[in-house]
Specification:
The chain is an alpha/beta fold. The chain is 45% helix and 14% strand. The chain has helices spanning 14-26, 39-52, 62-69, 79-95, 115-132, 149-163, 198-208, 238-250, 271-279, 289-305, 328-331, 333-354; strands at residues 10-11, 31-35, 56-60, 102-107, 139-142, 169-174, 178-181, 184-186, 215-219, 224-225, 261-263, 282-287. Strand 4, helix 5 (115-132) and strand 5 (139-142) form a beta-alpha-beta unit. Helix 7 packs across helix 8. The chain binds zinc ion (ZN). Residues 109, 177, 181, 225, 264, 286 line the site of zinc ion.
């Protein structure tokens, strides 16, 4: 039985997300979560997943969402981030089912000072739920990993209680993902905090599992955001298996991998590291830095190759152009932006391949 026999195409929520994650664990693959900042990047990711016949996770970061709304809108009280994530969500909901693949719609890291953003999205989820019987988003992330553990778990639990009636998923982070992303800098974090102990993961499990099963955990195993020189990062994916077995034993569970784990800072990781993490029950891997670079590459190469044609609206024989016809077909954004979409498409497909997520429908 294939994935499309158990979940529909388009944005999925609640139990369908659970079915997807269980299916991924059983079939030993994980789904890339692609950070998107525009309808163009959303479409490139959807097209890539459709052509490889795979499910996909699309996510908006706080800054990415503000960009989606428009840099001209003030982000006072998180208004641009709230508006942009909702606009992005409606775009994804409008087009996703036409690509014929299941899509998880997610929002990325939300630290304590950004909680008004999460509150705004949750209000949109509740309004959507009233009309449609499901939330607008499939899931959100809350990231209080910079706060003391007790505080992290206490506030995460409160938010999870608000999500649960909608079967809205919540991803949380315990331990710190190193590096820098979306303006949050953990480059000087304490090295021990980069490796979450199993006891802490179990505490999260104990706090959240009585409420609902719809949660996932980003536990730190030396992973960092961004791409650094080789050797800078010591990944210990075996910690993930330890967490799984610790929870399994202490909660007396049958399931081989009871936790839905999330791999942050996937950009720059080796194929082997990714494979190992997936074999330990990782269901989602975030990809941002590498797809940003890929999107640029197509635009950059197009501009460099057609530099002359882009310097004026009409070809100029005196400047070495072949003819003096209009250059519109070069500078039309549908042309040069499409080149960025094509190179991003390839990078999304590479992430899928690394995660074993090819022909998984
Ligand atoms: Zn992250």
């Amino acid at each position: 039985m294939g994935l499309l026999d158990i979940v529909p195409a388009g944005v999925i929520t609640g139990d369908n997300v659970k079915k997807l994650f269980d299916y991924a664990q059983e079939h030993h693959f994980a789904i890339p979560a692609i950070n998107c900042t525009s309808s163009s990047t959303v479409n490139a990711a959807l097209e890539a997943a459709r052509d490889q016949k795979t499910p996909l996770i699309i996510q908006f970061s706080n800054g990415g969402a503000a960009f989606y709304a428009g840099k001209g809108i003030s982000n006072k009280d998180q208004q641009a981030s709230i508006l942009g994530s909702i606009a992005g969500a409606y775009h994804v909901r409008s087009v996703a089912k036409h690509y014929g693949i299941p899509v998880v719609l997610h929002s990325d890291h939300c630290a304590k000072e950004l909680l008004p953003w999460l509150d705004g999205m949750l209000s949109a989820d509740e309004a959507y739920f009233k009309d449609h019987g499901e939330p607008l988003f499939s899931s959100h992330m809350i990231d209080l990993s910079a706060d003391p553990k007790e505080e992290n778990i206490r506030i995460t639990k409160q938010y999870f209680e608000r999500c649960a009636p909608m079967k809205l998923w919540l991803e949380m982070e315990i331990g710190i993902t190193g590096g820098e992303e979306d303006g949050v800098n953990n480059e000087s974090a304490d090295k021990d905090a980069l490796y979450t102990p199993s006891e802490d993961v179990f505490e999260v499990y104990q706090a959240l599992s009585p409420i609902a099963p719809y949660f996932s955990i980003a536990a730190a195993f030396g992973n960092v955001h961004g791409v650094y020189k080789p050797g800078n990062v010591v990944l210990r994916p075996e910690l993930l298996e330890q967490h799984q077995q610790y929870v399994r034993k202490h909660a007396d569970l049958d399931k081989k991998h009871p936790l839905y784990l999330v791999f942050h800072g996937g950009s720059g990781s080796t194929e082997e590291e990714i494979k190992t993490a997936v074999s330990y029950g990782v269901v989602k891997m975030n990809v941002d830095t590498d797809t940003q670079y890929a999107y640029l590459a197509g635009v950059r190469d197009f501009v460099l190759e057609n530099k002359n044609r882009l310097m004026s609206q009409v070809g100029d024989l005196s400047k070495g152009d072949d003819d003096d016809t209009p250059n519109k077909k070069f500078y039309d954004p549908r042309n040069w932006i499409r080149h960025g979409e094509k190179t991003m498409y390839k990078r999304v497909q590479q992430a899928n391949t690394d995660l074993g997520n090819v022909n998984t429908l």
